[in-house]
Amino acid sequence: MTALQFAHALLDGDSEKAYELLESEFAKGKSPAYIFQHYVTGAMRDVGELWLNDEISVADEHLATATCDYVLAKFHSRIPRKKGTSAGKKAMFFTVEKEQHSLGMKMAAYLFEQAGWRVRMLGPNLPLSYAKDAANQFLPNVIGLSVTIVHHLEQLPLYLKTLEKIDSNPTMLLGSRLLSQLDFQRFKTDRTIFIPQFEDLAEILESEEMEQLRDANL
Predict the structure, then answer these.
(1) Number of helical H runs and strand E runs in the chain
(2) Which residues, other chains included, contact 68 with Cβ-Cβ below 8 Å and sequence gap of 6+?
(3) Tens digits of residue pLDDT in 162-198
(4) 58-77 vs 15-27: helix axis angle to the nearest 10?
(5) Cα–Cα–Cα angle for 162, 164, 167, nearest 5°?
(6) What is the average pLDDT across 127-146?
(7) Is 163 exposed, middle or buried (CB count within 10 Å of its CB: 0-12, 13-18, 19+)?
(8) What local confidence, expressed as pLDDT, does residue 190 receive?
(9) Quick one: residue 19, left, alpha or beta (phi over 0 = left, psi -120 to 50 = alpha)?
(10) Which residues make Cβ contacts (< 8 Å) with residue 58, sequence separation at least 6?
(11) Of 90, 147, 146, 77, nearest to 116 (Cα)?
């Protein structure tokens, strides 16, 4: 399968075919992180380029996104979870205020769930005040933020500064397609980890640092 083949299934609104394509690659031994990066992300990038070039309409792009969202949830539901989930393994995910693109955030959250973490997905466009309240109630070990639009980056410093102060002292994960295009060092803090690709996230989930976070409250 290629990302473009998956993109065509999404643009056709053919959720059954799109799911079968992902399932086929998983059956061949491809990891969820590999599938998310090379097929799903690649396909949505192709869809975006078609829209920018006026080769598809806004309605077509929305159909592809909605179909992808459905197929991802279905695909995620069949992936085995690691055993031994505990209250000390908690992660929270959302996108910053006015950021509506949430597929990347969902795929990151799915990888955490598959690794045995307890996850809360708060969706797109979450104002900081609500994010802070949710974090204080849930007390996650990890908070994942997603940003895809350049002019939304100006919000990041305040989000990071505020959320790092909650009682659980969370590690902040920042995912963005912009990481390969812009210098993010001005957003770097002692507890911020940049996630350029889903395969990088999969490696981090297996790292000693994350194992320590998972076991912190056991």
Answers:
(1) 10, 5
(2) 10, 18, 40, 43, 44, 103
(3) 999 999 999 999 988 887 778 888 888 888 998 889 9
(4) 40
(5) 105
(6) 96
(7) buried
(8) 84
(9) alpha
(10) 51
(11) 90
The β-bridge partners of 173 are: 144, 193
- Alpha-carbon span 144 to 196, nearest angstrom: 13
Task: For each of the domains in the chain, give its residue range(s) and CATH number, in order of start.
Answer: 3-78 (1.10.1240.10), 90-213 (3.40.50.280)
Would the pTM count as exceeding 0.85?
yes
Neighbours of 122 (CB within 10 A): 19
Measuring CA to CA, which residue among 139, 204, 125 is closest to residue 169?
139
For the cut 80, the answer to whether the pLDDT of residue 217 exceeds it is no
Strand 90-95 to strand 171-175: parallel, antiparallel, or no bridges (unpaired)?
unpaired
Cβ-contact 71, 107 below 8 angstroms? no
More confident residue, 35 or 187: 35
Count of residues in the chain = 218
Any bridge partners for residue 145, and if so which?
94, 174
Q: For residue 33, what are its two tokens?
A: 């992180």
- Do 202 and 112 meet the contact criterion of CB atoms below 8 Å apart? no
Kindly state the average pLDDT of the residues 37-64: 95
Name residue, tokens 């991802």. Answer: 72
Mean pLDDT estimate for the chain: 90
SS3 82: coil
The 10 Å Cβ neighbour count of residue 4 is: 13
